[in-house]
Amino acid sequence: MRSPVAGNSMPDPIVTFLLPVRNAARYLAATLKSLEAQTRRDFIVMAWDNGSTDDTCEILRSWIPSRLPGEVIADDPRTTLGECLAAMVACATTPWLARIDGDDLCLPQRIGLQLAEAERRPSLVGVGAFARVINAAGEETDVVKQSFSEPADLRFSLVYTNPLVHPAMLLRRDAVLEAGNYSPMSMGQDFDLWMRLSSVGPIANIPRILLHYRVHGESIGASRHGDWPALHHELLERHGPALFPGAEKEDIALVHRALSGFESTPPAGRAVGEAVIRLAVAARRAPAWKDTDFLATRAVWNAYARCVPRWQRSPLRLAQMLAAKAAVRIRA
Hints:
- It is a single chain.
- The protein is an alpha/beta fold.
- It has two domains: 15-224, Alpha-Beta Complex (Spore Coat Polysaccharide Biosynthesis Protein SpsA, Chain A), CATH 3.90.550.10; 244-327, no CATH class.
- Helix content is 40%, strand content 16%.
- Strands 1, 2, 3, 4, 5, 6, 7, 8 and 9 form a nine-stranded mixed β-sheet that branches.
- Helix 10 packs across helix 11 (270-283).
- The radius of gyration is 20 Å and the shape is elongated.
- Mean pLDDT is 90; it is low at 1-8.
């Protein structure tokens, strides 16, 4: 396995940007310029071309390693994005990995703030950030991709959403390998990894917009949006027992159906709320999370409130959750 080549005029790198690309010429120069503008410079770029037929390789080689330290790998294309990312993780030699796609833009403070958060909270295995959606022309939209920030919120919300923006993530390499690395999936390889990585250690989001996430007709998420409901169901079938040890499959499926937003008439009512509570109790049985009171998290509170109409809510459950929120402060 090869390893990326760093330039001589930079500090020893501690982060490798993983940049898998295929026919990314339209937006790639802007992406690379956003990496060049980072305020913290102890990183390298591993760009892996997967059989581009446009000017992608020429653009990469005009930047790397002359303007950005790193390596362009263009002679070993992989079939799926998950397979490519797994190979990149295996090749990397830095302790931290940062994801970026060839059509997104990093804000200048991104890596500096994420590394500072990782240093402040050394138990974290991943640090994400919020992202603003931009269109094909680079114009900001009114949509901001964001979710929860704290580890327990993020972990619980996996039952009904993907709470992390993949190209905004900073990941601890040894934790990714411990979790089994990326799976060779053509889509959803990030969601699959979050479900496994959250059992290795906590993941947090910085509640600031540090990425402009481009959505356009050629992106995988846009072109295969209709495949997400079946994929999410499949991943919960596979990883639900580890996320919620001892929980009934029916409870996982019920909460997923009620909250994922995929159904036009999702189930609701006290029965769904009680399933939310049972999953919160089950989540605490995971070895790495035995000291976490999930009833005190915003994710569980919001899930319960979304499922159960106000007039059906159990006063006992509300009192229990309010007491937990008052008594427990979630920390990584």
